[in-house]
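Researcher: Good morning. I'm working through a list of sequences from a screen, and I'd like to move beyond sequence-only analysis. For each chain I'm collecting a predicted structure so we can compare shapes side by side. This is the next one on the list. No need for commentary yet; just the structure.
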Amino acid sequence: MIIRDGVEPASLEVAAGDIVTWRNEDDERHRIRSRDGPVEFDSGDLEPGDAFSYTFEVEGGYPYLDERDDEASSYFGTVVVGPAPGASTEPAPASASAAPLPATASTELPAIASAQPQASSSRVDISDRTFVPADITVSVGDSVEWTNLDDEGHTVTATEGAFESGLMAGGVTFSEVFDTPGTFDYVCAIHPEMRGTVTVAAPPDPVASDPAVGGDVPVSIVDMVYAPATVEVTAGTTVRWTNDDSVIHTVTARDGSLNSGIMQTGAEFSLTFDEAGTFDYFCAVHPSMTARVVVTDPGG
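Model: Good morning. Structure tokens for this chain:
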């Protein structure tokens, strides 16, 4: 990766275990730091000619920015980490993991520490008397973390009183969990010209289809949701996912029973469900996106 008038290339796909190196070929100092993702990384200050390398061990999406040029979009980038070479990306047979559970067993899928969907956290930096980014969109249950990178004090104060950080000295961090959909405008109470907005998107209503018998059932991935979020089919039915969104996604089961790998815009992924069961899945790049397939036995 080259740092000059921006980061080149802006988007990079690698495999788990790969090393990515950023080299500063500019005449100015730069600093590469993650904005989100499974693991944080920070190069520290890179003088002209310096390089920073990081090994990506965990699959997922890693948006990052150049800390010293955070107002220029050309200095924002993304690393997408897919499966390691040799790792199987084919879904396990549905019968291997979807057998009906005994009546006394829990119907919850086992938790997988490295893949279970969970609320995510978004970061906003306070730098040069500016909230960066000034406008951010999150899902219900997500948190936003503000960090004061300035040498002077600031606050994060909702105009309608929903949250208040109090005085934040340089280096102080403030977090807020957003449990209610809506738009939340905020300012710095010390410097009112500093303004920002958090938009909290409501989760989509799960829409269960009538049980389909055989054939092909489509699911669209669009606007950061699976539509419909729940489909009911009978054993022997094929479910076909199409990425109709403008960003990459995956279809990933918590128990590993299905895994599409990275799906570019327009890509399709299909799986035939041969046994009854409930399959919860999510997007490994955007873990707040969740859905499920319910497979019933056609014999009742």
